[in-house]
Write a structure and sequence with these properties.
single chain, mainly alpha
């Protein structure tokens, strides 16, 4: 009875978050239902932590074979691949829509188009290049916690946007999550970022967590101003853009002589 209650209350929702946010296959018997999927929001940062641990472990292993520039490329590739490129696609669609200088309804139409325009391509290239450069600039004992915090920051950004914005479309998978969102999810994202950052990276990690949360808030405000609410694409863009912040903070700290 206790095991069944644990599975229904926690494990089922965790597995739902894992299946939604990654390409890891789950056996059909563990496939989540809509209720589990909707209740999985608090586990998004936990999945981000697991992804970060996998990236950091891979980077450590490859470090015995390749220089830091090469392992940084592999780290960014894994960050993209683990979600099947879902968030990268959202970044591209959001860039195409937001930089079109069109009214709200037209922006939503552009974002719905499966074809990627020039601004979407440019956004992917710029974000990927910036991630590689920033991660490559961080070495030594700081590197592991930066890699750990990168996907955590991205998944916490999802919570911030879900908690604070209305849904801009009446249809879509995001509606399952939006119906189960709470303003407290934003507070949980902040708590998770500060705690994970502080425990992993000390003061620099704590600052990186706090700045990641502030950036997620700023991007959420930008999304509200442009289209009045969130979509699946803006969630993907929030994840990709906020992932930049931990390495950005660490690189600036190291370059400024804070270490």
């Amino acid at each position: 009875m206790a095991i069944a209650a644990f599975y229904e209350g926690i494990m089922k929702r965790f597995l739902a978050a894992l299946q939604f946010l990654t390409i890891l296959p789950l056996p059909p018997v563990l496939a989540p239902d809509e209720r589990a999927l909707g209740g999985s929001i608090p586990f998004f940062p936990v999945v981000g932590l697991l992804i970060g641990a996998a990236v950091a472990l891979m980077d450590w292993g490859l470090g015995f074979l390749f220089p830091v520039g090469v392992t940084s490329v592999f780290a960014v590739i894994l960050l993209i691949a683990v979600s099947g490129g879902l968030h990268t696609d959202g970044l591209a669609d959001t860039a195409d829509g937001f930089f079109s200088s069109r009214p709200r309804e037209r922006i939503l139409e552009i974002m719905r188009d499966s074809r990627t325009g020039p601004m979407g391509v440019a956004a992917i290239v710029c974000v990927v290049a910036l991630k590689i450069a920033l991660i490559a600039s961080v070495s030594g004992p700081w590197r592991w916690w930066v890699l750990l915090m990168t996907p955590v920051a991205g998944r916490c950004a999802l919570l911030v946007q879900l908690a604070l914005l209305p849904y801009a479309r009446p249809e879509g998978l995001v509606g399952i999550f939006h119906r189960n969102r709470s303003r407290r999810h934003a507070l949980w994202a902040l708590t998770f970022l500060i705690t994970a950052g502080g425990l992993a990276g000390g003061v620099p990690g704590l600052i990186a967590g706090g700045v990641s949360f502030l950036f997620a808030l700023l991007f959420t405000a930008c999304v509200r101003r442009r289209i009045g609410g969130l979509t699946g694409d803006t969630l993907g863009a929030a994840c990709e853009l906020t992932e930049i912040v931990p390495a950005l903070v660490a690189s600036a700290w190291l370059c400024g002589g804070g270490a």
